[in-house]
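Hi Y.,

Following your request, here is the sequence exactly as I used it, all 294 residues.
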Amino acid sequence: MAITLEIGGVRCHILSDGLHRLDGGGFFGLVPRVLWQQVIQPDDRNRIPADTRSLLIESDAGLILVDTGVGDKLTAKQRQIIGLEDRTERLISDLAAAGFSPQDVETVILTHLHGDHAGGCTRWDSQDGGPGPVVPVFPNATYLVQRIDLADASYPNERTVATYFPDNWEPLAARGQLRVIDGPKRLGSQVRTDVAPGHTAAMQTVWVEAKGESLLFLGDACSWAVHMDRLAWVPSFDILPMVSIETKRRLRDEALHRDALLVFQHDAQVATGRLVSGARGAQVQPEIRADGVE
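Below is the corresponding structure, written out as tokens. Let me know if you'd prefer a different format.
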């Protein structure tokens, strides 16, 4: 279900492409299970639920969507592996609940090109929903991607090859809808991106700022609230772990200074929160908790 809030009068909607399940070690890296299971309990296959949130912004630069989720270009086997339900158009349903259609989206900001963030950029154009020609989900949108991220996705190495799927962006490039940017980008007076390396070399976060209020969509720069509390808890997904720690430190300092509302993209328990001073320093105080997760 879409969550609607305002940041300095700017209407923002937190959408979801649904819960799926991944090995807990992916999100908690070298942290022993005996510690991280105090945050989230795994199932008998060591998997934990992970959300796939996106952010829809009604900005003065038009309707902006940040990330597109897993999407529906998945086989039954792929769905089964990640525990994704059979329901399709999950993100599109949340978009409709917020009062919009895919045709209304003018800009899509991709934090990075991993499949669970860019999979919903395109869809199969077939009557039965099965494999077929690939077309944009948001036909009128310009899709923004960082130059280095696109290069890394286009020429992956042995470690990263399984995380990138060219059908998520190549059809957009062929239609002239993919726009490559290099570094931070401002969209109107209320939205800006910032490069936050660590998870990937050029991942980007998104800020919404208006009338002295701020929201920070963290993406995989800090996908769970506990990662902001404990900087050393670095996901094994992060290709630059030490850089990831310093990026979180910088983001934490800036978010605390601005009293920014933080949006956690994958945390199945905490959707949003703010930083407050605690015994260990800055820590997240949840504001909106996710439903349906024990």
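The first strand starts at residue 3 and ends at 7.

Thanks again,
Q.
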